[in-house]
Write a structure and sequence with these properties.
Bound molecules: adenosine-5'-triphosphate
Oligomer: single chain
Radius of gyration: 36 Å
Keywords: ATP-binding, Membrane, Nucleotide-binding, Transmembrane, Transmembrane helix
Largest sheet: 6 strands, mixed
Number of domains: 2
Strand content: 5-15%
InterPro entries: AAA+_ATPase, ABC1_TM_dom, ABC1_TM_sf, ABC_transporter-like_ATP-bd, ABC_transporter-like_CS, P-loop_NTPase, Type_1_exporter
Number of strands: 10
Structural class: alpha/beta
CATH topology of the largest domain: ABC transporter transmembrane region fold
Strand order of the largest sheet: 6-7-8-3-9-10
GO cellular component, one term: membrane
CATH class of the largest domain: Mainly Alpha
Pfam families: ABC_membrane, ABC_tran
Membrane topology: Multi-pass membrane protein
Length: 581
């Protein structure tokens, strides 16, 4: 039951929760073992005080004391070792598991999740929050619960020894914890404040580094850096505020604990005067009150730390509990036609982005999406690969409703050339191999040749082995796009989505790429988004999207004849082709 509570409360695995319980038990035993030296002091005191109080002189047996000291040290060492073993195991194995689980969960989430999510926030949860939680599980939780457990055992012993002094010693403990617990709401508020400020600052830092070129070219650095220093001083202030909020409760609790010793002295003196207890009993309670509050004070600080960390635990649990879009993995497709039937869609319930979309993109044909900016072309292509599911209606591939299919498996059927090409800081060879893991070097080089990469790769110092820098910074826009096309050629999937695939290319390169693309798209279902009308002159079907609706669809010839929006766009582009600056 406790194990299940830990799994639920702290988001641990079952093994992690079991190890944590063992760690807590050993922490309690370790705390209790620290009382054994007190037992030895008491024995020595008894030997010295007994003759003073009229008793017999006792001869201290030194050999026995040495043996007892060694036994006590051995017991403390054994419990401490066990405690470290279970706690550090839990901490680092759990931390690793948590990071893997979070990463795994993110991998399985629909791509739509990442479009509307702050990525700096996700990275911070996986890296920083997990590190902070390591301290929580290796120190705060076991120390707090271990000291509570040992305190209960010691309290029972003290109360059996003398219930009046026992109560005088211990009544402050629950009050101190209640005081701290009452301030919980402020502690959480404080840590939320710090967390939000840290995220805002992290976002701005990232934005600043990513856009340093624009900032410099528009002389905007000074304004931006003063905004950043404003944010960092806000963090400093909110950290101080949060620390103050947490320490107010801890200090109040600690102050209250001091009243325990006062009440032991007052009550003990009264009981001695009335002859109800011996000096020896009084001294035992005085020694106990000098040692017992130390672990409790630490417990108060650990409780404050747990309360501060609650927000981080919740953030990790939130990602772990996000709904993973599952779906069928075992299905057979009847060809690769993509059909939109009565599809309506919006991103955020506020504004309809697509309304009543109906069209068929046939296998073996090129279907071009055109239309004014913001008309919904990219959104249609995202729905075609199930990055998002429609709000109403259905998108199907080979007769199967995409909403019922597993995304990861589904994407095996797609080669997608995105508008913004993402490259990795690796060799050209490996960047192209992303298209098909396990492809041989020869296959990769053949795809690169078809995508017209050869000509620029040969000029690079290490050819295909050249490392191209973060996101391919050593390459031009056109070269990056050709690598992305080479990836798609290597993957050779049955459905091809091209988003502005040739926008960076000059006319000569564009025609070369067009040749490569013609080879790529044979017998496949191709949906292409292109702003330039000449790229899609040979398309089989054109779907014109305007303000989220299909304004018209048909072959290029039919639409020219129709003299509608498409014809207008073609005329406008012909006109702009004659522009001169
Ligand atoms: N992730 C998103 N969240 C919210 N709204 C979005 C998102 N992506 C796009 N939109 C909105 O959806 C509408 C359609 O955008 P979409 O990118 O599909 O148009 P488009 O025709 O491809 O435009 P362009 O030709 O300029 O690339 C726009 O109004 C846009 O603001």
């Amino acid at each position: 039951m406790i194990s299940e509570y830990f799994v639920e409360r702290f988001g641990l695995t079952k093994d992690g929760a079991d190890n944590l319980i063992k760690g807590i038990l050993y922490t309690a035993l370790q705390n209790i073992s620290f009382i054994f030296p007190v037992g030895l002091y008491t024995l020595l005191l008894y030997i010295w005080l007994e003759p003073l109080m009229g008793g017999e002189i006792i001869d201290p047996n030194l050999a026995m004391f040495i043996v007892l000291i060694l036994i006590v040290l051995g017991i403390i060492f054994a419990f401490s070792w066990k405690q470290y073993h279970f706690l550090y195991n839990t901490t680092y194995v759990e931390s690793e598991n948590r990071r893997i689980n979070l990463g795994e969960n993110l991998r399985k989430l629909p791509l739509s999740f990442f479009e509307n999510r702050d990525l700096a926030d996700l990275t911070s949860t996986i890296m920083n929050d997990c590190t902070d939680l390591e301290h929580l599980f290796s120190h705060a939780v076991p120390q707090l619960l271990g000291s509570i457990l040992s305190l209960i055992i010691i309290a029972v012993g003290m109360i059996i020894f003398d219930w009046r002094l026992g109560i005088a010693l211990l009544w402050v403990v629950p009050v101190a914890f209640i005081i701290l617990y009452i301030t919980k709401i402020y502690i959480r508020k404080g840590s939320k404040l710090v967390m939000n400020d840290l995220l805002r600052c992290g976002d701005s830092m990232q934005e600043c580094i990513e856009s340093i070129r624009e900032l410099k070219s528009y002389h905007y650095e000074d304004e931006y850096f003063s905004k950043l220093s404003g944010l960092t001083s806000t963090i400093e202030k909110s950290r101080i505020k949060a620390e103050l909020m947490a320490s107010a409760g801890v200090i109040a609790g600690k102050l209250f604990l001091n009243l325990g010793m006062v009440s032991v002295i007052l009550l003990g003196s009264y009981l001695i005067i009335n002859g109800e207890i011996s000096i020896f009993t009084f001294l035992i309670f005085l020694i106990a009150s000098a040692t017992i509050y130390n672990p409790i004070e630490n417990g108060l600080m650990f409780l404050a730390e747990i309360l501060m960390m609650d927000i981080k635990i919740d953030r990790a649990k939130e990602i772990e509990s996000l709904v993973i879009e599952g779906g069928l993995t075992d299905y057979s497709l009847d060809g690769y036609d993509i059909e939109f039937k009565d599809v309506n869609f919006n991103y955020d319930d506020l504004k309809d982005v697509l309304t009543d979309i109906n069209f068929l993109a046939k296998q073996g044909e090129v279907t071009a999406l055109v239309g004014p900016s913001g008309g919904g072309k990219s959104t249609v292509s995202k729905l075609a690969a199930r990055f998002w599911d429609p709000v109403d209606g259905q998108v199907s591939l080979g007769g199967e409703n995409l909403a019922e299919l597993d995304c990861e498996k589904l994407l095996e059927n797609f080669s997608i050339v995105f508008q913004d090409v993402i490259l990795f800081n690796n060799s050209i060879l490996e960047n192209i191999r992303v298209g098909r893991k396990g492809a041989s070097d020869e296959e990769v080089i053949e795809a690169a040749r078809l995508a017209e990469c050869e000509e620029f790769v040969e000029k690079l110092p290490n050819g295909y082995d050249t490392i191209i820098g973060e996101n391919g910074e050593l390459l031009s826009g056109g070269q990056r796009q050709r690598i992305s096309i080479a990836r798609a050629l290597l993957k050779n999937a049955n459905v091809i989505l091209l988003d502005e695939a040739t926008s960076f290319l000059d006319v000569e390169n564009e025609s070369k790429i067009q040749k490569a693309l013609s080879a790529l798209i044979k017998k496949k279902t191709v949906i292409i988004i292109a702003h330039r009308m000449r790229t899609i002159a040979n398309a089989d079907k054109i779907v014109v999207l305007n303000e989220g609706r299909i304004a018209e669809q048909g072959s290029p010839e039919e639409l020219i004849e129709k003299d509608g929006l498409f014809k207008k766009m073609v005329d406008l582009q012909n006109l702009s082709g004659e522009w001169k600056i």
